[in-house]
Hints:
By secondary structure, this protein is α+β, with helices and mostly antiparallel strands. The chain has helices spanning about 40, 80-90, and strands spanning about 1-5, 10, 25-30, 45-50, 55-60, 65, 70-75, 95-100, 105. The model is unreliable at about 1-20 (pLDDT under 50).
Amino acid sequence: MTVRNEDRATVTEDPAAEGPDGALEVWIDQELCTGDGICVQYAPEVFELDIDGLAYVKSADDELLQEPGATTPVPLPLLADVRDSAKECPGDCIHVRRVSDKVEVYGPDAG
Length: 111
């Protein structure tokens, strides 16, 4: 939902709303990952458990990204699933942030 304030600027309730700078990326802090696999259940296109039992993000080409801090874009059709993964993660290790300014919009450091 979008509303207008007195100075006519647009105010949006969803911090990840679409817009020119609305591209999002997601990463997992494996040091906090509990290996429950909830993220994989919500968004298997984005997350995968590796042989070490920890979750990782995947590239658009379905490649497992195992480098610490590796990020992958959040496809807009999967935004709700990725958001729910971050909210339900027992390890609080999933971070979703805007690409433009690196501000976390979902996850343990979201403001």
